User: Fold this.
Amino acid sequence: LKTVKASIFGARHHVGMLRQHRVTTQRLPVILPLEGTSDDAIHIATLADLGVPDYDVVARAQRMTSRLDMAAAGIGLCVAPVHFVHAHANNQRLDALVDGFTLSHRYRLTVSQRNDAHMDCARDYLTGLLT
Assistant:
């Protein structure tokens, strides 16, 4: 189980307008992963957990960097891990709409039982990504 701190990010001007007007009936423009993927389900559940029942899906992209680029351009908002946003090239153009929250992901890692230097290296690398 991997847990990360996350938030809903958007362009600074976009987030500023949403905060200033505090319109609760407004349908938020969101950028989601590709429809039907596990990432899509996680994002939809996260929005529901945060009390965002109404939103318009304005764009979809599987790569997080693409979603953050669109958010930085003011197209919509996206759910993203905080550490990923800090490392992103457009992070100075992004702002968090809500206080951070925790996302949990359950990963299952299946690797070959082969024991050689290449497999050991790959196994160590992949395990390191999840810790």
Summary: The radius of gyration is 17 Å. The first strand starts at residue 2 and ends at 11. The beta strands are 2-11, 28-32, 55-60, 78-81, 94-96, 101-105.
